[in-house]
């Protein structure tokens, strides 16, 4: 019985690790898409073309650009 429980726990742990790796890869791809979107924007492409190029919604691209230009707490007042 202990061996069966140990195997079950091992399977659960391994499944969690795989899910974590997959999530990390998704986050990496999304961050790469964001960086590419910034570069394309700096080159003058429109937000709708950028969204198609990096395969995300137009709303996502617009949110990224809003976050990029939003002042942060560390930004000194003008």
Write a compact overview of the structure shown.
The protein is mainly α and 78 residues long. 78% of the residues lie in helices and 0% in strands.
What does this protein look like?
The chain is 78% helix and 0% strand. The protein has one domain (2-69). The chain has 78 residues and is mainly α. It has three helices and no strands. The protein is elongated and about 65 Å long. The protein has helices at residues 2-42, 47-54, 58-69. The model has no long low-confidence stretch (mean pLDDT 88). α1 packs antiparallel against α2 (47-54) and α2 packs across α3 (58-69).
List the helices and strands and how they pair.
Elements (H helix, E strand, L loop, with lengths): L1 H41 L4 H8 L3 H12 L9
Helix pairs in contact: 1-2, 2-3
């Amino acid at each position: 019985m202990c061996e069966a429980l140990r195997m079950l726990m091992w399977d659960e742990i391994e499944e969690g690790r795989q899910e974590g790796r997959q999530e990390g890869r998704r986050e990496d791809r999304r961050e790469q898409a964001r960086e590419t979107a910034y570069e394309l924007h700096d080159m003058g492409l429109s937000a709708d073309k950028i969204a198609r190029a990096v395969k995300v919604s137009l709303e996502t691209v617009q949110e990224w650009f809003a976050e990029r230009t939003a002042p942060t707490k560390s930004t000194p007042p003008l």
